[in-house]
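Quick one: structure for this chain?
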Amino acid sequence: YCPLDLFSGCPQRTQTALRALIRDPQNNFRVFRDSHHVFGDSAAADSSALSPLLRDFCGQSEDDVEGALCRLVAKALALRVDTSRPEDEALMAEEECDLHHNSNHCFCTSEHALTSGSVLDCVLRAQRLDAIDSEVALQLLQRVNSNDVWTPPTLDAADQSEDLALKVFRFLVSLTAKDLSIMITMQRLEAGADVTSLPSRHLIGDAERQYLASIRIIDLDQKSDQKIKRTFSKDMRMIAAFNTSAKNNNNNNSV
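Got it. Here's what it folds into:
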C-alpha cells in the first residue's frame, strides 16, 4: 500500500492503493455487510473471501468483485462532500513513490488533482498543517509550557501565524489527521430507480448499477501534547534504524 497513490487524484493509482489494502488489510481496511464484519482485521483477510460475499452487491462475476469494489470506493472518495470549497482549489496530484514506481505508474494522458472538497482533499489539507517537524514541535511546546500559556488557540487566533501555541496546535491537528478513519456506507439501488432527486454528492455507480453513498471521518479525538514527545521518540528510532541499516549495507558492499 502506498499513500501517495491513494492521495494522487488519479483513479488508476487510487484503485492500485485500494487493491493493496484489500490484499493486505491488517487493521487498515475493513468491510461490513448489513452491520456484520465480514472482511479485514479479525475477520477473513484473504482477498478471495470478498468474491462470494460481495458478488451480488458490486460484481457481475466473482473475478470482478475486487476490481468493482475498488472502483466504487475510489468514486466515493472523489465525491465533493464539502461543497463550500471552490472547485478550482483542488490540490495537485501527489508525486510518484520511488519504491512503487514500477507497479503504480499512471498511464493516463491527463493531469490529475484531488477533487476539491472530497474527503481525501479535506484529510490531506489537515495533514499538511504540520509546517514543523516533531523536534521543532517539541521545542516549541517546551517553550510554551515554560510560560504556562498552553491552550488550544481560538478561531480568532487563526491569523497569528507566528504564535507558538498555534504552531503546536496545528502540528497536533496534523497528527490527528494522520491517524483517523474514513467510513463509507453504500446501498445498491434497484435497477431503473429514479435518481433525479438525489444529491450528486451521495450518488455513485456506472451505467449498470447505481449506489447511494455516505462518507464520514471518525476517530477524530484531539491528540494531547504528550503525543508530540512520543512522535519525536518514534522519529528518532526510525532515524537510528535507517542509519544502522545504511551502515550495514555499506559494510557489506565494501567486503
